[in-house]
Amino acid sequence: AIVESIYASEYGAEEAASFAETTCGLCESVGLCAAPLPGIAESSGLDYSETAPDASSLGAYVKRTGCDDLSKIGAYVQYDGFTVAPVWVDLGERRNPTLAEINAFSSYANCDSPVANITCFDVSGTDGTALKPGGVTINGMAQHTTADSFNSYLGAAEIYITISTMDTEVNFDGVSLHRFGTATDIFDYTDDTADIGTGIPVNGLHQLSFVTGFLSYMSGPFFIHGDTSLLEAVEMTNTNGTVMTADTMYDSDGTLLDSFTSAYGTFVDIESGTGQTMRARKRSQVSYSLAASTSVANASMSDMLWPTLPTEVVLPTYWVQEAGEAKDSVLDTFKSTLTLVKTFLPGLIVLIIVGVLELHVR
Prior knowledge:
Layout: H1 2-11, H2 13-21, H3 26-29, E1 62-63, E2 76-78, E3 84-89, H4 99-108, E4 118-122, E5 136-137, E6 140-141, E7 149-154, E8 159-172, E9 175-181, E10 206-207, H5 209-212, E11 216-219, H6 229-233, H7 246-249, H8 258-264, E12 267-270, E13 277-288, E14 315-325, H9 328-361
Antiparallel strand pairs: 1-2, 3-4, 5-6, 7-8, 8-9, 9-12, 10-11, 11-13, 12-13, 13-14
């Protein structure tokens, strides 16, 4: 009833009734309970601001403080109760796993004693909120970050991605920040990335299939920087009404247009002296496709409901933006501190020099 009412609000009662009859309604008519395909939006009904979840149902999250090693500030050691997770199986070729292979994964994928073709990925990387601080130098606050890249752990994918300097400084409300971002080939296939399911079956996709239990993928929004065949297989329109095609998104030499990079790229802006992230936009897209049926030849896994749906077409489900910015009060405090450093540091240096001279004279 909940699904039907949501569907009716978008498409009308008649369409909703037909949809429910061929999905949830099958539970009553033939004893088959068929949930709607991924992509339908509905509220979870959970509001943790009103009722906190039972603590016993929550996994443990452990991060390093950096007290023993500043380069490890905020690094995950444990995420949602696990420290290592199986993420991929070597299939021997660059292809999607079959439904049978996905189903079998849960029965033998064990990182305590993994078989040879399993890739287990250790929990590592940070949430991107801080780097090792550059601190204060004789010239004032450090002008360069202490690292050129860092690994950002993605809990849902159970891997990390590398976020690297873009060799660009940006101004954020009067504060100079160093911009970091993901490389354009972040989801491209290489011998190394193939071990975790990246670039399979084409560049621009990272496989989530063995993690989620069905054919699913992570990518940039609208498959940016991915194989253009992904754009040709579906029709996507952005909020401006632009149909997203290779011609509208890329220039003649295949470079993504700046407007799309700005709107859909991932970036992290870091202040070098404190090492703190002052502004960030993390953008990603999740897609799925239908695997071939295990019982009916030349049909998809949906053969009982929608027998003509094609298999292994990557269908965008949603794209999400995680955004964060330092509050005005934080920026004001930082700028006040910066002013104090610029004001008192020269005087402090003079006092030190005078003190050394006096000691030398005596």
